[in-house]
Write a structure and sequence with these properties.
The chain is mainly alpha-helical and 143 residues long. It has helices at residues 2-12, 21-35, 42-46, 57-67, 72-82, 108-126. The longest helix has 19 residues, at 108-126. It is elongated and about 55 Å long.
């Protein structure tokens, strides 16, 4: 399913992928259903408003998020990269901003074992040590 959604996203960008965005999107949804043993429900699901192909990146990424429900790290990286699906932070978020974390902050072990290197990396990436938080964006996370 993941490869199909990657190819659907590439087709959405106008890249030549040996099929249309719609074909890869529908193959991705079908592969997801087959993976989880619910392939018999595919036809009814794909026909629903909001699921039937509409040609948006949001739709591709939402279905990829669903397909990757057991690969949380991958789904989180896709969300950070594209902004989709649109997510709402938990009402009782534990980070200072209350938003969905954008990155892993360096841990206390990192600072205790390689403080000078970690501090230099933080300053190089975010300007000062106060920005080593879950809310600081990595270089490719620009949305």
């Amino acid at each position: 399913a993941e490869v199909c959604f990657i190819l659907a996203e590439a087709a959405d960008k106008g890249w030549s992928v040996g099929g249309s965005e719609k074909e890869w999107y529908e193959k991705g949804v079908k592969a997801s259903f087959d993976t989880w043993g619910v392939g018999s429900s595919y036809a009814a699901y794909i026909a629903q408003t909001g699921v039937a192909h509409s040609g948006t990146l949001e739709q591709i990424m939402t279905q990829k998020w669903i397909a990757n429900w057991t690969v949380a790290q991958e789904a989180w990286c896709d969300w950070r990269r594209t902004g989709y699906p649109v997510l709402t932070p938990a009402p009782d978020a534990t980070n200072d901003s209350g938003q969905i974390p954008r990155r892993y902050a360096y841990g206390t072990t990192d600072y205790s074992l390689a403080a000078d290197s970690v501090k230099a990396a933080v300053i190089r990436q975010w300007g000062d040590l106060d920005n080593d938080t879950q809310d600081s964006r990595v270089w490719w996370d620009v949305l």
